[in-house]
């Protein structure tokens, strides 16, 4: 059974982003999260991460439809 809550480290791994990027997503409210415990550890509910990913797909689709995409790197550039 998959865990209900993910750490920011989990989020960075799943989205393949840096820790500061994950923290910025949470602090800006783009990715809903909560703080728990006396040390205020951030946790992201797995369903919230999936909802965020879905929103990003929708935003990307709109940008493509409007012709506002950035170039995708070729396999050689990656």
Unreliable stretches covering 5 or more consecutive residues:
none
The total strand number stands at 3
Major sheet details: 3 strands, antiparallel
Secondary-structure element series:
EHHEEH
The dominant shape is elongated
Count of domain modules = 1
Report the radius of gyration as a whole number of Å: 15 Å
CATH topology: Multidrug-efflux Transporter Regulator, Chain: A, Domain 2
Per CATH, the class reads Mainly Alpha
- Order of neighbouring strands in the sheet with most strands: 1-3-2
CATH architecture descriptor text: Orthogonal Bundle
What's the average pLDDT? Answer: 90
Helical fraction equals 40-55%
Helix- and strand-based class? alpha+beta
- Beginning-to-end CA distance, first to last residue: 34 Å
Total of helices: 3
What percent of residues are in strands?
5-15%
Short description, anyone?
It contains 3 helices and 3 strands, in the order E-H-H-E-E-H.
Structure description:
- It is a single chain.
- The protein is an alpha+beta fold.
- The chain has one domain: Multidrug-efflux Transporter Regulator, Chain: A, Domain 2.
- The protein has 3 helices and 3 strands.
- It has a 3-stranded antiparallel beta sheet.
- Strand 2 (34-36) and strand 3 form a beta hairpin.
- Helix 1 crosses helix 2 (19-28).
- The longest helix is centred in the C-terminal third of the chain and has 20 residues, at 46-65.
- It is elongated and about 45 Å long.
- It holds the Pfam family HTH_17.
């Amino acid at each position: 059974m998959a865990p209900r809550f993910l750490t920011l480290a989990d989020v960075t791994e799943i989205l393949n982003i840096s820790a500061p990027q994950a923290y910025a997503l949470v602090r800006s409210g783009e990715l809903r999260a909560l703080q728990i415990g006396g040390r205020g550890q951030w946790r992201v509910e797995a369903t919230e991460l999936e909802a965020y990913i879905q929103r990003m797909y929708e935003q990307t689709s709109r940008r493509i439809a409007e012709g506002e995409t950035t170039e995708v790197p070729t396999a050689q550039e990656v």
